[in-house]
């Protein structure tokens, strides 16, 4: 497609809301996934650290 102005580009031939809305939702979902993965990683590391501390205390 050829667009003659930025407004036509963002309108995407009448499908701009769908196109840009899809991009927006994808960015939000990927951001949420990144955040949740980070939280799960931190929780797993914390669990491992607690188990190592308990193991050290039991061996004393």
TrEMBL record:
InterPro entries: Haem_export_protD_CcmD (IPR007078). It comes from Pollutimonas subterranea. Keywords: Cell inner membrane, Cell membrane, Cytochrome c-type biogenesis, Membrane, Transmembrane, Transmembrane helix, Transport. Belongs to the CcmD/CycX/HelD family. The chain crosses the membrane at residues 15-37. It is a single-pass membrane protein. Its main location: membrane. The keyword Lyase does not apply. GO terms for biological process: cytochrome complex assembly; heme transport. This is Heme exporter protein D. It is found in: Cell inner membrane. GO terms for cellular component: plasma membrane. Required for the export of heme to the periplasm for the biogenesis of c-type cytochromes.
């Amino acid at each position: 497609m050829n667009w003659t102005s930025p407004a036509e580009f963002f309108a995407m031939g009448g499908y701009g809301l769908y196109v840009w809305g899809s991009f927006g939702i994808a960015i939000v979902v990927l951001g949420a996934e990144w955040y949740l993965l980070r939280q799960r990683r931190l929780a797993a590391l914390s669990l491992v650290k607690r188990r190592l501390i308990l193991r050290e205390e039991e061996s004393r």
